[in-house]
Amino acid sequence: MTEKKQREQLTDRLFAHEQPHTDFRFDASVARVFPDMIRRSVPGYTTIIPMIEVITDQYVQPGSNCYDLGCSLGASTLAMRHGIRYDDVTLTGIDNSADMLERCEHYVALDDHPLPVTLRCEDILDSRFSNASVTTLNFTLQFVAPERREELLTRIASATRPGGVLILSEKIRFESALEQDTQTRLHHEFKRANGYSDLEISQKRAAIERVLIPETLQQHRERLIHSGFDQVILWYQCFNFVSLLAIKSAGSQA
Fold first, then answer.
1. What does this protein do (predicted)?
2. Which of 43, 139, 189, 228 could, after both became Cys, cross-link 238 (CB 3.0–4.6 A)?
3. CA distances (Å), 172 to each of 125, 220, 230, in order?
4. 221 is in an annotated binding site
């Protein structure tokens, strides 16, 4: 197979032709083109991933556990891996899509780093966490049913060591209709600039709107505090995509 043909196969064209409406799923077809899809769909993704390494380096604690929840193909898992400077830290990536994890295993194997990575195929709502210093939810919580989100965050906070953190990246919505419309328009222009057609944008939006449920920044802040974190910092925003750092203070009880 030629290099050009390989690139074409890895290019996201899943919504390029009219098709019956179905809800978005992280299946084999999405896993195959996911790096291209997320790079062209999520503004700032290529900034957030290396910064996860920087944040992990700052907050990882010796003898602790680190988790990437909803790890997909492992981009944030590998960023965390390179930010961990202690050899007695365990790193676990969890995702409920076997198709995504199959490709994740490949990327982990190709990565030249000695720290072992454990991958688990399970629903993060059923996962057990303990002794955590750094946990990442990188565009994952938005796919969890809203009524289950606080439960998940409370278990993460309870498992987090004093001084530990949660990195939470999300697509958000806005209280102001004008701001919502403006940010949505700019996001769609970002997609068009990356080669997506109006048909692709429309069909992807229809497929994902019942699966990805965004909330306001204020809702995220309040829930994180209520769940047991002591400080919430907005460290990144581009249009309607943000990343938050939720910190458990050194005086908190794990």
1. Catalyzes the conversion of S-adenosyl-L-methionine (SAM) to carboxy-S-adenosyl-L-methionine (Cx-SAM).
2. 43
3. 21, 9, 21
4. no
Q: At what angle do helices 28-41 and 98-110 cross, to 10 degrees?
A: 70
107 is in an annotated binding site: no
Is position 66 annotated in a ligand binding site? no
Do the annotations mark residue 205 as ligand-binding? Answer: yes
- Output the CATH code of domain 45-137+163-173+214-247: 3.40.50.150
User: Residue 162: exposed, middle, or buried by beta-carbon count in 10 A (0-12, 13-18, 19+)?
Assistant: middle
Look up residue 194 and give its two tokens: 């990356």
The annotation status of 124 as a binding-site residue, yes or no, is yes
For the chain, which residues make up each domain, given as ranges? 45-137+163-173+214-247
Q: Is 32 annotated as a binding residue?
A: no
On whether 240 is known to bind a ligand per the annotation, the reply is no
Whether residue 133 is annotated as binding a ligand: the answer is no
The answer to whether the annotation marks 238 as part of a ligand binding site is no
| CB 119 within 8 Å of CB 105 | yes
Say what the alpha-carbon torsion angle 110, 87, 136, 53 is, to the nearest 10 degrees: -70
State how far the Cα of 171 lies from the Cα of 104, in Å rounded to an integer: 23
